[in-house]
Amino acid sequence: MKFGPIPIAEAAGAVAAHTVRAGEAIVRKGATIGEEDARKLAAAGLTEIVAVQLETGDIDENAAAEQLARALAGRAVVTEAPFTGRVNLFAAAAGVLQIDASVIDALNAVDEAITVATLPALKPVVAGEMVGTVKIIPYAVPEQRISEALERLGADKPIAIAEYKLKSVAVISTLLPGLKTSVVDKTLRTLGERLQPGSAAIERDARVPHESPPLAQAIREAVAGSAELVVVFGASAITDRRDVVPKALVEAGGTVEHLGMPVDPGNLLMLGALDGKLVIGAPGCARSPKENGFDWVLQRSLAGVPVTRAEIQKMGVGGLLMEIVSRPQPRAPGHGDAAPVAGIVLAAGRSTRMGVGNKLLQEVRGKPLVRHAVEAQLASRAAPVLVVTGHQQDEVRAALAGLDVGFVHNPGFAEGLAGSLKAGLAALPGEVPGVVVSLGDMPNVTAGVIDRLAQAFADRPDALAVAPTLLGQRGNPVLLARKLFPEVAKLDGDQGARRLLDAAGDAVEEIALDDPAIALDIDTPEALRALTGQGPHG
C-alpha cells in the first residue's frame, strides 16, 4: 500500500486519506476518488492530494475486516456490514459471552494494522448487544497478513454466546423473628428481574424457619420438583460450613462444593448440589439489584456454563466490583452494616408555586413525580416506608398504587411542613433508631443516597442527624436519629428539620456527595419544564 501525496492527474482510483473540499468538489475520507472528482479538484486549483493506492497483494480494509469478523463469530453471534474498515459483532440471543482470550490475543499480535476488541468474557448479554468489533487501522493490509490471522483463528470460533437454558428456579427463604415479609417479597422481585433476560421464572417460593431441619426438608422438596435450579436466601449470612444453610444442604443429602468467593460484594456465597441440581446459597448482597458476585454465578448457571470451585477461585482479578447500594461507601476499619432505618416521604403540600395542578402528580419519565421519590425509598434498605399525605390525598394514593408503603394523613397539611413531619415520625414503630426523610418533589434522588446516609449513621450511631452536602451546601434527604424526634415535636408552621440541624452543630454528620439530585426539587413550572421539557398539567 502506498500512502502520501500524489498528483491529481494520477488520483483517479486512489482512496482519499482525508476529506478534501475544493470548489465544487467534496471528497470524503476513505472514498475512492473518481474521474469526475479528480477533474473538479484540478479545476479548483489542486495539484496533488494525500491518498492511498493499493498494490498487488493488498486487500481492502472492508474486505479484510469482513473476513476476520466472520471467522470470529461463533454460536449466536452475527456480524454487520463492513464500514471504514470496521465490522461489529452482535449477540443474536440472550446469554453469557464466551471468549477464547488466547486466540484473540494471538490475532492482535499478527500485525498492528489488525485489531479485535470484545466485551469481557462471561459477561451476560442480551440479543442485539454489541459484543465485539474488528477494525483494520490503515486502508488496506497485505493479504498475507490476513491469511496468517485466519490460520491462527483455525476452525474454532472464539466469540460465542452460551444461550440461557434453565427456565425455572425454586427459591427458599429462611425467616427469623423481626424479618419483615416485605424484605422477602422485595428479594424475590429483585431475583425475578435478574431472571427476565433469560425468560426464566421463579416457580416455587418456600419460606421456612431459619433452622436446618425445616430448611433441609424444603431443599429436598425443591430439588424433587420441576425447578432446574435452587436458590436459598438465608435470614442471616453464611459464615461457616456448619452454619444453617450449608448444614441443611448436607442433611438433605447434598454436598457443599465451595463456600465463599473472591468477589466483593458477594464473599459469602455457597455453591452446592443435590441430585444433580445446583443449589446456591445467596449472599446478603444478592437482595440488592446492583451487580454482585451472585450475579456471576447465577447468570452462568442459567446459561449452562459450568461454575465449579476452581472457576470461583479464579474470580479474584476483577472481583472488586463498583460500589453498590448495599455498600454505599468503601469499607474501612470499624464500618458495620447500614443502620436499620425507616423511610418517610413527605407528600402533603398544596403545591402553590406550581400553579395549575399538583406538582406531585405531574408526569416525569412516564410516572407521577412523587412515585420516583417513593420508589427510591423502597429500593433502599429503609423499612418500613411511610408516605405522609395531605392535599389531594386520594390522588396521591392512586399515584402510588401497588407500592408496599404505609400512608399517614396530615389533616393540618395547610399549616406547613412541620405538621407532616411530626405526623410521619409519630407513626413510626418504636424500635426504629432513625428515619430518612425524603421530599416528594425530588425525583432524581436514588436509593444509593438513602443507603449512604444509613451507612454513615451506622458508623457514627451517636449522631443526631446525617445530611448530604453538595459543594458544602446541605441538601435532601436527611436522616434524623430518634434522639432528635422530641425536638421535631417543637416545630410548627413551615419549619422543617433545617433549624434543628443548625442547632445540633457537630452532632450532625455531613456526607459530601457529588450528586446534584440532592439539591433539585421540582416546585415551579420552570423547574418542571427544565426536567421534562413540558409544563404542568391540571
UniProtKB/TrEMBL annotation:
Looking up InterPro entries in the UniProt record yields: Bifunc_Mopterin-bd (IPR012184), MoaB/Mog-like_dom_sf (IPR036425), MoaB/Mog_dom (IPR001453), MobA-like_NTP_Trfase (IPR025877), Nucleotide-diphossugar_trans (IPR029044)
UniProt keyword Magnesium, yes or no: yes
SMART domains named in the record? MoCF_biosynth
Record-annotated MoaB/Mog domain positions: 170-303
Task: Output the Gene Ontology terms for molecular function.
Answer: transferase activity
This protein's UniProt keywords: Magnesium, Transferase
Highest rank taxon of the organism: Bacteria
Where do transmembrane segments lie in this chain?
none
Recorded protein name is NTP transferase domain-containing protein
| Annotated source species | Bosea eneae
Its ancestry begins with: Bacteria, Pseudomonadati, Pseudomonadota, Alphaproteobacteria, Hyphomicrobiales
